[in-house]
Amino acid sequence: MALGAAAILAMALAACSGPGTATSHAPGSPGVGSAPSYPGGVAGCAVTPGAPVSGRVEMVGRAFTAPVTVHAGQAVAFVNRDTTTHSIVEGTNGHAGNETCVRKRARASESIVLTFLLPGDYPITCTIHGSMQTVVHVRP
Fold first, then answer.
1. pLDDT, tens digit, for every residue of 73-82?
2. Distance (Å, rounded) from C-alpha 60 to C-alpha 84?
3. Which residues contact 136 (CB under 8 A, 6 or more apart)?
4. Residues 5, 75: contact at Cβ < 8 Å?
5. Strand pairing partners for 100?
């Protein structure tokens, strides 16, 4: 069953609510354009297992596959094809941003589904292997 934008926003608020949880993207990071700010402390993404997937990023050979573009309210599956654990963290060069919408570890063969709620460019890094970088571009 497809989730509506209101249901996805409610899930994100439940998972990432409260003041100080606004997502800050790293402006000037490689592959990153705009640096959106979120009024009311609404995070830009949320872990949503079982959500219908519109994009896919694989972790293979200690690297993320190419950047992906989705629309606000759509989900991206991060699939670990390696034999080692990786992390999926909003940030760059192995470091999380000051406030991030995701900090999740993916064991070998595990998939993590994230729904991106607000438009913007979300730099994603692995804090275990700092050279792993990608970007999720979210359009309105």
1. 999 999 999 9
2. 10
3. 45, 55, 57, 67, 68, 69, 70, 76, 114, 116, 121, 122, 124
4. no
5. none
CA distance 138 to 109: 26
Contact 106, 59 (CB under 8 A): yes
Q: Which residue has the tokens 């979120």?
A: 38
CATH number, domain containing residue 111: 2.60.40.420
Q: Domains in the chain: how many in total?
A: 1
pTM: 0.72
Q: Domain containing 65: what range?
A: 5-139
Ranges assigned E (strand) in the chain: 45-47, 53-60, 63-64, 68-71, 74-80, 86-92, 95-96, 103-106, 111-116, 120-125, 133-139
**Would you state the pLDDT for residue 100?**
85
Residues 21 and 125: their CA atoms lie apart, in Å, by: 19
Amino acid identity for residue 102 in this structure? V
Over the stretch 25-71, which tens digit does the pLDDT of each residue have? 333 333 334 444 444 556 789 999 999 999 999 999 999 999 999 99
Q: Which of these, 16, 1, 27, lies nearest to 117 by C-alpha position?
A: 16
